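ugh ok fine here u go
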Amino acid sequence: MLKKLTERIYFLPGEKRTDRPYLYYINGDTMSLAVDAGNSKWHVEKFYHELKEHGFRKPAYTVLTHWHWDHTFGMHAVTGKTIASVLTNQKLREVQNWEWTEQKMREREERGEDIAFCNQCILCEYENLGDITVIPADIELKEKVEINLGGIHCVLEPHDSTHSRDSLFLYIPEEKVLVVGDSDCEDYYGDGKYDRDRLLDLIAYIKSFDFTTYLIGHDVPRSRKEAMDFLHSQLEMVSV
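structure:
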């Protein structure tokens, strides 16, 4: 069910069984924007059904926080234009060439191109692997841009993170809300641990925003204090 964060911002909670992330909706006076495209067309359909139930229009833009399957495999089913960092699109063009059979998935896992957890969740989400459709975003970002939705603005900026090098952050100044996706998690496509230098950079970057609410990919919204406490606790463990 769609949840209300503010008068302008709503979200569809994630689902652990198939690793569906939280999907966010920013409602402007003239148009709206969604954050992340979900892990399948069924995920998108559920999101749009909830928007319709609340009397909201479909988003004019859908912004991708990073390339991972659970945030992008629903992109072919969204309305409007899609937006991603240049690095995200580079990776999605690579993934477009992947073959989707259980054998090929196992081979990619063995080579370190993909990981077991993702493959397990994909097999749960997709009864027929032939339904998987991967496409790049319509619009690529190299640097910070601002989108005026009417009465509310979204500032988008690509920046490195501890989770994925292609992360895209979204800041909503009127609401003092920062959307980070999975960017403060470990890099599971690496060694599954935090890189100390990348974590230090991420902490400094996040701290530079004037935010009170922190929105992440797979859990409930956090306060600024909760977000910074979490990041510093991870830094302490890396530094030991």
